[in-house]
Write a structure and sequence with these properties.
- The structure is a single chain.
- The two termini are 49 Å apart.
- By secondary structure, the chain is of the alpha/beta class.
- Strand 40, helix 13 and strand 41 (808-809) form a beta-alpha-beta unit.
- Among the domains are: 26-254, Ribonuclease Inhibitor (Leucine-rich repeat, LRR (right-handed beta-alpha superhelix), Alpha-Beta Horseshoe), CATH 3.80.10.10; 750-917, Toll/interleukin-1 receptor homology (TIR) domain (Rossmann fold, 3-Layer(aba) Sandwich), CATH 3.40.50.
- It is built from 19 helices and 44 strands.
Length: 932
């Protein structure tokens, strides 16, 4: 019984192991998710399951996944089995669903989870074992739910939690957050936009001490804020912003300033505060360094109060209806942010006292010129003026700001840049003048800005941009223009450090776009040795594929430009016909290539011969009808292939086999044929274990008409497999296996087969004649080799036939002429009472002698009669008998007669006589070989 139970247990374990192996070998044909592509391959798997209209967690998530994005679906609840065995998961995003409940223990297996986002759902309470198992969770986002209740033990498993976001929920009482404050590692707690009418530490246990450093606590209903106990000894940041405008009065009660001595950051949005209330609040802080205010009235001397905070270093004033600003002496401030106000002017003297100012942000206002005081801010390093109404820059605007490193003037109305504007900016590294009305910039960048590294001139109305317009220090250039090149360049600028170039052409008229590149020498661009990333975009999207194709010859200068980029790593072209065979002939280091919205219908494999290191290829919306051009492209390093929004009908197996390193394939929005022509591709998608075919289960059929709208992977390929190829495959396989098996048997089991054959013949003979009980014609059949014939006639016959009178059968004398020899042997053995084997070395080497003794052996063991007598004429060591398996086995188990060892010939022949006299019956102690 125990044996049966053990066997059953082993069977179950084996089945489970088999199931595990099957799961581990799952292909990448995930139905509802796609594996996020990683440029650097690793064993870690990140899944994107967002925006798939999922109502339940997919059951085919790989167990070794480390990140899952499940946001923006319609999930209703989380149950225990949803994330079973996913012990390596470190990030789980469930935001923007309809989750109303999480079953206790649902996260038990997520022992490595560090970030969990369940924001924007419909949770109403946190149950006792909801977060069981999440001992390593660091960040938890529960914002934008309807949570009103937190069980006292709900957060106990979260011993590593540092950040908890409960913004926009329904918590009402301070006592509700006690379980949070008890967490040993909690650092940040956000409670913005809940329903607290008061926040008073007296409502919490007196002995409670939290490790909290950041607290956000604004609320529309908040009327009282009181910290009267040392509950927050480590608190550094207090945030009362983020819940819109709050017009109610706020009663501020801090009896001891020492309770807030560590707070350095205060964010406050509260239009209902009176001037006195605000002064009272500020007086509660001793170490304030960053103050952020919004929706406040600064017309009542509020800034004077602020500037009296000697520890203040950064001041943010948002949404405060400031048309102008007059800041009292605030010499201690190093950063000021005035974003999103209505400032139209910052008059002279506004920042006069701010000698230590390092950063000034006045973006998204209504300034029409550069603030006058900027020219006197000698220590200014960052100036952000984007999103204003500035149209003119003067030579005096930056005349003394020679420490400025970053300048943002984007989204203004600037139409021209004079040479003198930036002459003083000798340390500027980043300049953004994009999204302006800029038509020309003259020699602005040739005589100044010698340290400029990043320049953005995109989305302007420039017509001509020349390489020699820039300094050698430039590393990144973004530009929109009608022409780009080196026409009329007399400068020695080489742009040796340029790493990234992004060109957007306003029109796709290739006859004029790059005509400026038609220079007398193709070596005009040898200076672009450091180029890593190059983007060319044509913004005129109205021209069709035929236009691009017809104008291809006019884009040859692009090849000249690329020729200089020997170290180019990434190229992106949109509305650019760059499919000429020699386009990238000098860019052997190219790893990423994108060509979109052009005509690649005539592309061939020779195009890729010069880019053997290509790893990423994106051919989106290019009128491609087939991927045959990849078969001989030799893209052995290609890992990422995206050919979406094209006209592909059929994918041939040879294409997939030619890309041995492919791990990511996206063929979305093509016009697939649901027929046997795609059966190989369908089978490959389902079974391959290397390449992820992104959203393969969403690919729809376009042909034939009756299949339109159905899914490609739902097409039944079984009938396609029965077209004869499978039969020929099985037949040829069987033939090969049979040939190999036959060769193996002949080489290793030759003698066993021969012996089996003779046993079968003996069996047939025994069935035909032995069962008839025919009388024996001879007393003994003598089996001997022709080389021993002299001994048989000289020694044996005179004694056995002459003296003792036995009837012997000898093959040369008694075999029937014309009869098959094997049948003669069988008749002789079964027609004689005994078989005498005269054994010598010649005997062992004889094939017919071997057959005779095998036949006799079969009769011996089949009839259980004493029929076999062994006579050894020579001394033969046992190891010489090893190749003769049957003989060695008989000698090892039975005694035998030896002519060389006989003490006297008479005794020897007497023993032979005794063996011949033995009857058919076998006694238990009778030796079947000798009768002794």
């Amino acid at each position: 019984m125990a044996t049966k139970e053990t066997s059953s247990l082993h069977s179950v374990v084996g089945l489970l192991c088999l199931l595990c192996l099957i799961h581990l070998s799952l292909a990448y044909s995930l139905k509802n998710c796609s594996i996020i592509y990683q440029e650097n391959p690793s064993a870690e798997v990140a899944l994107d399951c967002a925006r798939r209209k999922l109502v339940t967690i997919p059951d085919d998530l790989p167990k070794h996944t480390v990140m899952v994005q499940l946001g923006e679906n319609v999930l209703k609840k989380i149950i225990k089995d949803d994330f079973c065995d996913m012990s390596k998961l470190s990030l789980l995003n469930l935001t923007s669903n309809e989750i109303a409940s999480v079953e206790d223990g649902s996260f038990t297996d997520l022992v490595s989870l560090k970030t969990l986002d369940i924001s924007s759902n419909k949770l109403t309470n946190l149950t006792s074992n909801m977060f069981q198992g999440l001992s390593n969770l660091i960040e938890l986002d529960l914002s934008e739910n309807s949570i009103t209740f937190i069980h006292s033990s709900a957060l106990q498993p979260l011993v590593s939690l540092q950040t908890l976001d409960l913004n926009e929920n329904g918590l009402k009482e301070v006592a509700d957050i006690e379980p949070i404050l008890l967490l040993p590692q909690i650092r940040t707690l956000r409670l913005t936009c809940n329903q607290f009418s008061s926040f008073e530490t007296n409502d919490l246990p007196l002995n409670l001490s939290s490790s909290l450093k950041v607290l956000g606590i604004s609320s529309f209903q908040l009327e009282t804020f009181s910290i009267a106990t040392p509950i927050f000894p480590y608190l550094q940041k207090l945030d009362f912003s983020g819940c819109g405008q709050q017009y109610s009065e706020l009663q501020w009660d801090i009896p001891d300033k020492a309770l807030l001595r560590n707070i350095t950051h205060l964010y406050l949005t509260h239009p209902g505060l009176s001037f006195e209330d605000f002064q009272n609040i500020l007086q509660s802080f001793e170490s304030l360094s960053h103050l952020r205010l919004a929706y406040l009235d600064f017309e009542k001397g509020l800034l004077t109060t602020i500037c009296q905070i000697q520890t203040l270093r950064k001041l943010d004033l948002f949404y405060s209806d400031l048309t102008s600003l007059s800041i009292e002496p605030c010499s201690q401030v190093t950063e000021i942010d005035l974003t999103l106000n209505t400032i139209t002017e910052l008059p002279k003297g506004t920042f006069q006292s701010m000698k230590h100012l390092r950063s000034l942000n006045v973006s998204l206002n209504s300034l029409t010129n550069i603030p006058y005081d900027v020219r006197s801010l000698e220590g200014l390093e960052v100036l952000n003026l984007n999103g204003n109404l500035i149209s003119k820059l003067t030579c005096e605007d930056f005349e003394q700001t020679n420490h400025l490193a970053e300048l943002y003037l984007n989204y203004n109305n600037i139409d021209n840049l004079e040479k003198c504007v930036f002459e003083s900016l000798t340390n500027l590294k980043i300049l953004d003048v994009s999204n302006n009305l800029l038509q020309a910039f003259g020699n602005t960048f040739t005589t100044s800005l010698q340290k400029l590294e990043v320049l953005d001139l995109s989305h302007t109305v420039l017509t001509v941009v020349r390489i020699c317009d820039f300094q050698d220090a430039l590393k990144q250039l973004d530009v929109e223009t009608s022409f780009f090149g080196r026409e009329k360049c007399n400068s020695s600028s080489e742009l040796n450090n340029l790493e990234s170039l992004d060109i957007q052409f306003k029109l796709c008229n290739y006859d004029n776009n790059l005509e400026i590149l038609h220079t007398t020498s193709q070596d005009d661009f040898i200076h672009l040795k450091s180029m890593k990333r190059f983007t060319v975009i044509c913004n005129n999207a109205d021209q069709g594929f035929n236009t691009y194709k017809a104008k291809a010859s006019s884009f040859r200068p692009l090849t000249f430009l690329l020729r200089a980029m020997e170290n180019l790593d990434t190229f992106r072209g949109v509305h650019v016909h760059a499919s000429h065979v020699g386009t990238f002939q000098f860019n052997s280091q190219l790893k990423s290539l994108t060509l979109a919205k052009t005509d690649l219908s005539d592309l061939n494999s020779k195009f890729f011969l010069s880019v053997p290191n290509l790893q990423s290829l994106d051919f989106t919306e290019n009128n491609i009808t087939s991927l045959e051009f990849l078969v001989q492209a030799e893209l052995y390093a290609l890992r990422y292939l995206k050919v979406t929004d094209n006209e592909i009908n059929v994918i041939d197996d040879s294409v997939l086999k030619s890309l041995p390193s492919l791990t990511y394939l996206d063929l979305s929005n093509n016009k697939f044929t649901c027929g046997c022509s795609n059966s190989g591709f369908i089978q490959w998608v389902k079974n391959n274990k290397q390449t992820q075919v992104v959203n393969a289960h969403q690919y729809k059929c376009s042909f034939p008409v009756e299949k339109q709208g159905t899914f490609l992977l739902d097409f039944d390929i079984q009938p396609c497999m029965d077209d004869g190829r499978f039969f020929f495959f099985i037949s040829s396989t069987c033939l090969v296996v049979l040939t190999l098996l036959t060769s193996f048997i002949y080489h290793f089991l030759k003698w066993q087969l021969v012996y089996t054959f003779h046993l079968f013949l003996a069996f047939l003979y025994d069935s035909r004649k032995g069962k008839k009980q025919d009388p024996h014609q001879f007393d003994a059949f003598v089996s001997y080799n022709v080389h021993d014939e002299d001994w048989v006639y000289r020694e044996m016959l005179p004694v056995l036939e002459g003296e003792q009178g036995w009837r012997l059968c000898l093959h040369h004398r008694d075999f029937q002429p014309g009869k098959p020899i094997i049948e003669n042997i069988t008749d002789a053995i079964y027609g004689s009472r005994k078989t005498i084997c005269v054994i010598s070395r010649h005997y062992l080497q004889s094939e017919w002698c071997s057959r005779e003794i095998q036949m006799a052996s079969f009769r011996l063991f089949d009839e259980k009669k004493d029929v076999l007598i062994l006579l050894f004429l020579e001394e033969i060591p046992p190891h010489h008998l090893s190749p003769h398996y049957r003989m060695r086995k008989l000698v090892k188990k039975r005694t035998y007669l030896s002519w060389p060892q006989a003490a006297h010939p008479g005794v020897f022949w007497q023993n032979v006589q005794r063996a011949l006299q033995t009857g058919d019956a076998v006694a238990e102690n009778t030796d079947l070989l000798t009768g002794t």
